[in-house]
Amino acid sequence: MPLINLDVGEPPEMAIVPLSEIRVDASYQRPLKPKRVAQILRDFTWAQFGALMLVRQPEGGYTVYDGQHRLEAAKKHPHIAGVPAVIVELEAAYEEAQHFLGVNINRSAISTVEKYWAGIEAGDEAMMRICAVLEEAGCEVVPPGTKSPAPNRTSSIGAIGRALESYGDAAVTAACRTLRSAWQKDNGALNGTMIQALARLYRNNREIISEERMVTKLIGKDRKILTADAEALRKMGGGDAPLALAKALTEIYNKGLQTNQITIGVKA
Q: What is the largest CA-CA distance in the chain?
């Protein structure tokens, strides 16, 4: 017998809802893509429109947790004042974010950054863990609805999650803090591969490694050149990108040291 969820909740309400009563909650929704809205408008038919997924709000009106591009297209259409909708009752905003994730989690259209911010709103443990580590390091995820880069911002959610599972919170925190400090003008400093490589070194050499020395050694290096050199070595010798970078970083750190040299160590 397949696993079946029997707690299905209350049946939803079906209705035609006036467009003026529907809004988007920007705290977890992804930014609109104008080209997608234009495509919907160009091919608009009720047969293809389907129904929006809405949540009735206590103060009145509705928020949409699935179908914001169709909603925007309908608002721009001169002949449409209301849209078909499936309306559910939820107790809190975080439940909306949870359902947004549930609807969209397997769609390629949703990015890892969008999953992150929806997860934060929904109280997802994995995303909250990433948030806590980044805050401790003085870093953050790129804000929702913007691509504004900064040396302390990252979109490498998947890589950070893998690093946390493999090397732990302290090592990932140290890695992010090191990158932010070493490359203060590099908007790509918090690169996912670099985070994984550094976290490996911090975890495997926790007794002897100096974060201050690592920062000092990296300040004089160009991150892009370092990454390109490591990738060239990887192609020649095999292995994955984080391993190649870990080898390069180990060599840079150990240069001039007679004692307390670090090693790559094992991958968790």
A: 77
